[in-house]
Amino acid sequence: MSGANVTMTRRADLPRRLLLLLTARTYRAPAFVEAAERLGIEVIKAISMHRHLAEYWNYPLGLQYDDPAGCVQTIVDFAAETPLGAIIAVDDSGSLIAAEASKALGLAHNSPDSAAAARDKHIMRRLLHQAGVPSPISKLFHFSDANNTELLANIAAEIDYPSVIKPLDLNGSRGVMRVDSTKQFVVAASRLKHFLQTDRSGNAASTFLVEEFIPGFEVAVEGMLLNGNLKILALFDKPDPLDGPFFEETIYVTPSRLPVNIQNAIFETTVKASAALGLREGPVHAELRINEDGPWIIELAGRSIGGLCSKTLRFGPGVSLEEMIVRQAFGMDVASLEREPAARGVMMIPIPNAGLLKSVKGCEAAASLLYVESVEITVQLNQRLIPLPEGDSYLGFIFARGPSPDAVETALRDAHAALSFEIAPELPLIQRDFEIMVN
Q1: Higher model confidence: residue 331 or residue 3?
Q2: DSSP 393-409
Q3: pTM of the model as a whole
């Protein structure tokens, strides 16, 4: 990474003040605030929003994430009056800004190059292949070179099948589609182009990856980097197959039921992948596929697990994953904290079809089942539901804790079976706008 990693020494006199970089749709802010308060650390919230809107919603800092240089300057100017001890990006979108601002302020940080590599899947693939880390072969394409069906068909003719088409910098499987034929590729690429050009801007809206489909089952690794040393926090099994055409994740269960030798191979591959990208500080979330050739890195992010899934992890009395991240950022002890031994799991409740959520039934029955800890519906009634590959959320989360991973998985499936959702088809745009206007 061109010598870009400079690890700053953590000082004992760091200001006990944390800057959190948020987005309007994040689930994670309350957990980080609670963790910081437990440690006696003040939290300053910055949000990806125009300054005037941020002020209206009582956020001290409004940042335009699509202008990283401007964001960094705003943070540096703010820190000149209100010194900061650490900067944490809660979601992927703020990770590069956190790295650049931390570098400018002399705080412990990942290099901007490594933060960019963990965000841009094309850079990630190149670095992983250069380091000899097993990862899908991929190729970058530009929609500007494929403005009609004929040109997309030409691209489709030069790739092997099955393949996966995906955006460069989105997470949560957004925009990711498996294609098994030239016809499927043209349809999927056209769909992705429309989605990206209505949701993204700049290079992120005009480029996409096509990579080989790696067969096998998936796992997720949660880790913490301190000066380049990776501490493994958890290995999650994903018992539901993820073979396409879309890749909606559902159940995570830990500890893993895989043999120890396979677990060790997964950990070794994750360590090599983190080093290949140049990541040295903070949380790491990795997604791997396992087959007869061993573990393959599918994704590696310089952040922690998304959504509310972090609630599955506890490291001693009351110590959450967010507290581990805050502790690490301020140079506090994390090496001695081990995950609680109980089996835990989460189901990310999938969206079965598009429409408006009208009712949810069965929550009390689901929550009363053996080993189920809670059922949390995060979507509001009458909210528009958008499934993958365009959607970016779940209906909610089911959490379970039990004596074994098998018991936890069964509890999650039984709880999900107890739920029912009424989803009304959306009204045509003109009729919907009329009803909004008259009501």
Answers
A1: 331
A2: --SEEEEEEESSHHHHH
A3: 0.90
